[in-house]
Structures are given as structure tokens and as C-alpha cells.
Amino acid sequence: NAGVTQTPKFQVLKTGQSMTLQCAQDMNHEYMSWYRQDPGMGLRLIHYSVGAGITDQGEVPNGYNVSRSTTEDFPLRLLSAAPSQTSVYFCASSYNWGDGYTFGSGTRLTVV
Amino acid sequence: AQKITQTQPGMFVQEKEAVTLDCTYDTSDQSYGLFWYKQPSSGEMIFLIYQGSYDEQNATEGRYSLNFQKARKSANLVISASQLGDSAMYFCAMREGTNNNDMRFGAGTRLTVKP
User: CA A26, CA B73: separation in Å to the nearest integer?
Assistant: First the structure.
């Protein structure tokens, strides 16, 4: 099993550019989430999903979109990058509610 | 409003001793789950232990145990026989309700194990 795969691992964007962070899992997990982690801080929830076709907003959704067309994939789209979106982004998944997350290795994004 | 509070920004423990990392939470739900994660300096996030709100016994996983005090809304992580490899950031997290994937994290505690 590959687990949770995030691509790219590093990205530099210019202000105003858009991009998609990819997240894929091969564990048939229903629950998937996106978090951002800023230096010295905990993880903040951006968007989450409880299954294909179902997504919801977390605590910091502004500037980000998600979709969940398949169980495996949960891409995160930055609509118009801003320096405030410079962060490390983590994708995570779990099989059900009582399971801990399996995390991807993260994407380090810098917006200049 | 902050739902998960970790009041210890940093903790030190001597190798082979036990250490308790504090976590308090706030929820009005009867059904919720509490989780602890470890983040070493390499940056990966590792799930350690889970406690359900209806679980009567404290959860244990190897050297990790969760001291769950429901009335006090606390879910402290106890690490026994600390090892140098335990040096990391530790995050407490909570999922409320059922069939709800909204998991929120605390700010974390940095644990340093001294030789």
C-alpha cells in the first residue's frame, strides 16, 4: 500500500496564480481532510469529506476549493494564491470515524 | 472558539521516566473521539492513540496511555519509559458527533527527552 500520496512536495507560486494540490489514498478510506500547518502552530482544518460526492468546510476554507469525485482522490485547489497561504499542507484519511488519520507527507507551499 | 487546549508549549523529561502531556477539550456533544498524534522533526504526522467518549476504560497502545477524565473534559497522554526518539511535537485532537469528519487540533506540546 502506498498510503496517502501528496503531490507536489514543494511548490513556489506567484501571487494570483492558481494551482491544485493532489491527494490520493489507496486504502479505501471514506474520510479525507486537508489541513494547513503554519510555523509553530497546530493544524487547521481547511475542508473535509466523509465520502465521494460529499465535502464540507472546515475552519479556514476561504481561498480554497475541494471536490471528491472518487473515494481515492481529494484535490485541493488554490483559486488565487496569496502570501498568507504560504504554509505546509497535509492531506489525511481514515477508514471511519473512530480511526486515527493516516497523513500524507505534506506539501510545502510558498507564495511570493 | 478553541475546542482543544494544550497548555504546555514545551516539556522536558529524563530518559526512562514517564511524562504526562495535558489536553483539555470543550464540546456539548455526547459522542466524540479524542486522538493524539506525534510529529517528529522530520515533519510527518503519526497517529498514536484514540479514546471514544463512551469508552469506559482508558486507551492504551504500548508505552502510550490516555488518561481520560470525562467530567473534567481532559484527555492527557501518558508516555511511560521515555526514549530519546520520543522527542517531538505532540498534538491532541477531537472529532465531535458521529459520521462527522471535522477533526480539530490543539496547538501542540514540544517534548524533549534528555539523556
Answer: 35
Measured between alpha carbons, how far is B67 from B106 in angstroms, rounded to an integer? 17
A76-108, pLDDT tens digit by residue?
999 999 999 999 999 999 998 889 999 999 999
State the sign of the Cα–Cα–Cα–Cα dihedral B18, B111, A2, A103: positive
| Chain B interface disruption, residue of A9, A33, A34, A43, most B CBs within 10 A | A43
Strand partners, B76: B67
What is the spatial distance between Cα B76 and Cα B102, in angstroms, rounded to a whole number?
A: 21
Q: How far is B106 from chain A (nearest CA, A)?
A: 6
Helix-then-strand count for chain A, H and E: 0, 11
CB within 8 Å: A45 and B37: no
Grid cell 496511555 — which residue?
B65
